[in-house]
Amino acid sequence: MSANYKRFSKFLLGGLSVGCVGGYFAYKNQNKPIGLNPEVYSPFTVSKITKITPDASIFTLTPQGSTENMKNWDPITKVTIRNPDMQVQRPYTPLYINEDNLKFYIRNYEDGPVSSHIHSKKEGDTIELRGPFKTTKLDFTKFSRIVGIVAGTGFAPIYQLAQNSKVPVDIVYCERPGQEPALKEQLEKECPNVRVRTIQDRLIDVDDIMKWDNVNVPLSETLCIICGNPKFVATVAGPKAEYGAKQGPVKGLLENSSFGKVWKL
């Protein structure tokens, strides 16, 4: 056997080996579920369900695919979750970002096609997500203090923001009468820069928002964020514009306030 033939044989065998290995990994990756992305829905496993109130739980979802798009998120970031049986989707804000799983505080509404779909799941089941998406283009680092006015599960966006903020965050948390203010103590424990004031047995008023002890930051350097259902947002700061993403004028309880910025989520 000639030397040239031996060299050719070794080259051919080496090429076949590389091709086989490459083909195997290509096949393996082809069959791996797609990771979180903004274009198509990807599968997540319900790895844990923690009941917080009779009708609300924290759902911990772990991606079945890559975690590549689950890092370096900026607050406030959201995803959409869908009910594939009804082809309906809703936005949800995870409590934490930049982790290997996503935790959502979700209340079960009987007439909510997506929330009821999520609450029907058990640990080990699959839920489909798409994202991430920025909730707002606001630069939170421009402000020296943040005031959050939230109701119900509208607590989630300000919870995520507080986890990633270095400035003082004062939160007015409105909850239904008799409903335990979920996650209040947990957030204050995790974030020393956060104070949470709860309102349950009465309507929120201006003093709840404006009067805080030991505040050394002027209102002109303070960002005020409102998050809740449309009626709650309108009561606090006036309704958002009916069309597009426009904020609309500041009305309601904050009409005469001097906050540097008022933002309705």
Automatic annotation (TrEMBL):
- Binding sites annotated in the UniProt record for FAD: R90, P91, Y92, V114, S115
Do you know which InterPro entries this protein is assigned to?
A: CBR-like (IPR001834), Cbr1-like_FAD-bd_dom (IPR008333), FAD-bd_FR_type (IPR017927), FNR_nucleotide-bd (IPR039261), Riboflavin_synthase-like_b-brl (IPR017938)
Name of this protein = NADH-cytochrome reductase
Report the family membership: Belongs to the flavoprotein pyridine nucleotide cytochrome reductase family.
> What are the required cofactors?
FAD
- The principal location of this protein is membrane
> Mind listing the UniProt keywords for this protein, alphabetically?
FAD, Flavoprotein, Membrane, Oxidoreductase
Location within or outside the cell: Membrane
Gene Ontology terms for molecular function: oxidoreductase activity
Q: Where is the FAD-binding FR-type domain?
A: 39-139
Question: In which organism is this protein found?
Answer: Schizosaccharomyces cryophilus (strain OY26 / ATCC MYA-4695 / CBS 11777 / NBRC 106824 / NRRL Y48691)
Q: Which GO terms describe its cellular component?
A: membrane
